[in-house]
Amino acid sequence: MTAGMERADLPAELEAVVPLVDFDGEGYRLGYALSARFRTRSTLAISTRRRIPPPPRPLRSRPSNPDPAMPPALGRNTVVLALAQAINGSLAPISISLGGLAGYALLGPDKGLATAPVTGYNVGVALASLPAALLMRRVGRRAGFMTGASIGACGGLLAAYAITVASFWLFALGLFVVGTAGSFVQQYRFAAVDGAEGPAKGRVIGWVLAGGLIAAVVGPQTAIHTRDLLAPIPFAGAFLGLAGLAAVGCLVLAFLRPPPLPATAAPAGGGRPLGEIVRQPTFVVAVACAVGSYALMSFVMTAAPLAMVAAGCTTDEATLGIQWHVMAMFGPSFVTGNLVARFGARRVIAVGLGILGTCALVALSGTTLAHFWGTLILLGVGWNLGFIGATTLLTETYAPEEKNKAQGANDVVLFGTVALASFSSGQILNAFGWSTVAAFVLPVIALCLAALGWLGLRGRAAVRSAV
Fold first, then answer.
1. Dist. CA 258–CA 73, nearest whole Å
2. What is the pLDDT of residue 260?
3. Which of 105, 182, 233, 244 is such that its CA lies 20 to 30 A from the CA of 268?
4. pLDDT value at position 204?
5. Gap between the Cα atoms of 373 and 308, Å rounded
């Protein structure tokens, strides 16, 4: 169109167009100076203002660290701790898988205490949890973890020696020492979150625990290939292999570089009293859910192989079921941290507890091989979600200078209950059967879910009162 264009030359639908002649700083705008009220000639008004270029946009510099919650040192420590978990975490499957068999061989006609060495391992984890935390508060994470690995090597040597001299109780003491080293391994997940903030906490815990997936292979394979190392004495070589793994884990931990406490943190040993920390509702619920997830897993897992053999499954099928269970325990760790970051710790805990409840229902529905394997797989997945979620929730209840005593108190309660669960599992199975073992899971899950719901309602009420 050009200036001077006749009104009659315009389309009828443009009669009511409102004039729009303006300049927006970036170029020209055209408008039709038209009105339906006039029947005379009109012209198009064209703005003749000079074009002014917009100001240049400032260049955006790419941040040196895209994720401020995941500093480079944190990634390094996560890798080191995951490797240490893969190596030193294999001490547990060796002790649990061979402890009962070796104890059975060392006992006389009465085999009732055959699983006492395995219970000794769990008791060692429980009793050493708080001392391990206090030691690391004094000497630091790296020195403390290397000390724990050295203790594990000594425990393996003691257990091997006990088998060679046919001493049952000395063997049980050796596994107790190995369990003491296991209490340090349980602190890896807490060390992983040192220096992490927000969503990164759940991710690094998940990656460290994912090292247990490798441990599930390293431990049994070490036991298989070294158990006859001191033939004709069975099992002793496997515990020499355990000592060797602990020594390698000690070397790996030498590369750990734990971050210093923040400048605003109180000196070591400061912070609130332990009694004040453990009375927090979030602390209580986090520990309760961690205990529920872990103790129920140990309770059902310990009884499952015996129940499978009693139901007509072969020993190989029972062993394969435990292997699937361990894979299910640690396999989801690659994504559990992201789930915690996206949906929150409490929701992930609730899903994990729900899966544990489903596992009990599957166990109650039948005693075929498929039922047992399905129970063990669901048991592992439910433990993973519930335990990682509870561990992440626990980290929200203490300051950096309070972490050692808070984490130690958590592990004392946690692994004391796990030791009790593993000891009572066989007794309940022998007295009442597999169905009672499975049914025992349901009320514990209900209590944990009720505690989570109460914590959520309490948080909403606090928010409403603050508003």
1. 8
2. 65
3. 182
4. 74
5. 10
